[in-house]
């Protein structure tokens, strides 16, 4: 049976965007190795390309947690081939968004199943079980939610900003189209209402572009707060720079200081704990004054061992507060 429902409610929820968040999600998955872990993926950067439904953050989670990802590039599949893109270039078609040949199969099959009436959640669950992933991976919502980036060159959808324009335009504002009518994914709502849930981890993803789209879904932020679980965020900013991606540039352009403290303030009122990198240990007291407990740790994850180490420390920290 393709769409078996999980029997038990998860004990841990990880909230993630793409590459940076997936690193910690992998560490958590290696420790927990079961549906006791539910990973929530951002769908604000989903879009249609060549008529296909592409879910970049969900796919990054699927590929990373299954060991299929291209570690060197940080996105896509390892040992990928590019015949499709070469043919598209020869035809003078769109080539700004790279789709590898194996990756293309994921998008074709997802689109076929969506057209046949399956939900994005059902399809994602089918893929993760096919790929042999123990943790549950679900989209934050099955409803339409899109990140719209208002920039100095005009209004762009997320992939136009992120990939086609390489994050170069100056961000003026962000909108999450559909957030007013989107509902949290059903299994997520059920998990947040369960007494089994112990901890919620905000992975080190871009707070503005990856986590905020998830938190914009109606009632979800309140459901996180009301869950009774300890909520811990891991910093995506180290030494005044983003570990990965445009988070530092985004914060600066929207008028925020680029620091871990800024990220902690962004989540103030929602999180109980914050994992601060050891290079920024002098910010610990500032964050504690916000009423947020702080763990100082090495948050740079360069290999599987460091991903597991940070995941272990984060889980222990969440349990201790």
Uncertain residue ranges: 1-6
Strand count, sense and barrel status of the largest sheet are: 7 strands, parallel
Roughly how much helix do the residues carry, as a percent range?
Answer: 25-40%
Helix- and strand-based class? alpha/beta
Strand composition percent: 15-25%
* Number of DSSP-assigned strands: 14
Number of helices: 13
Structure explained in plain terms:
The chain is α/β, with parallel strands linked by helices. The protein contains 13 helices and 14 strands. A seven-stranded parallel beta sheet has the order 5-2-1-9-10-13-14, sandwiched between helices. The protein has a three-stranded antiparallel beta sheet with strand order 7-6-8. Helix 1 (19-32) packs across helix 13. The radius of gyration is 19 Å and the shape is globular. The chain starts with 11 loop residues before the first strand and ends with a helix. Mean pLDDT is 95; it is low at 1-6.
């Amino acid at each position: 049976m393709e769409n078996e429902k999980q029997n038990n409610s998860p004990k841990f929820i990880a909230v993630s965007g793409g590459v940076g968040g997936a690193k910690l999600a992998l560490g958590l998955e290696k420790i927990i190795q079961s549906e006791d872990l539910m990973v929530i993926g951002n769908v604000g950067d989903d879009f249609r390309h060549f008529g296909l439904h592409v879910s970049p953050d969900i796919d990054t989670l699927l590929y990373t947690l299954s060991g299929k990802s291209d570690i060197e590039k940080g996105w896509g599949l390892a040992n990928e081939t590019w015949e499709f893109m070469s043919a598209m270039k020869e035809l003078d078609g769109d080539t700004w968004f790279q789709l590898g040949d194996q990756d293309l199969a994921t998008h074709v099959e997802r689109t076929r199943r969506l057209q046949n009436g399956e939900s994005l959640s059902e399809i994602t669950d089918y893929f993760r079980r096919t790929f042999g992933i123990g943790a549950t991976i679900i989209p934050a919502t099955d409803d339409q939610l899109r990140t719209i980036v208002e920039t100095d060159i005009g209004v762009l959808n997320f992939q136009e900003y992120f990939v086609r324009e390489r994050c170069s335009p100056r961000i003026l504002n962000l909108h999450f189209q559909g957030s007013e009518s989107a509902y949290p994914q059903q299994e997520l709502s059920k998990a947040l209402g369960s007494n089994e849930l112990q901890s919620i981890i905000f992975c080190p993803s871009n707070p503005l572009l990856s986590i905020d789209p998830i938190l914009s879904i109606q009632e979800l932020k309140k459901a996180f707060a009301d869950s009774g679980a300890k909520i811990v965020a891991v910093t995506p900013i180290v030494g005044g720079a983003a570990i990965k991606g445009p988070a530092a540039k985004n914060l600066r352009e929207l008028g925020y200081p680029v620091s871990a403290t800024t990220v902690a303030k962004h989540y103030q009122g929602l999180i109980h704990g914050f994992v601060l990198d050891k290079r920024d240990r002098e910010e610990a007291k500032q964050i504690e004054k916000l009423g947020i407990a702080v763990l100082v740790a090495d948050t740079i994850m360069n290999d599987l061992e460091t991903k597991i180490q940070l995941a272990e420390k984060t889980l222990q920290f969440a349990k201790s507060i």
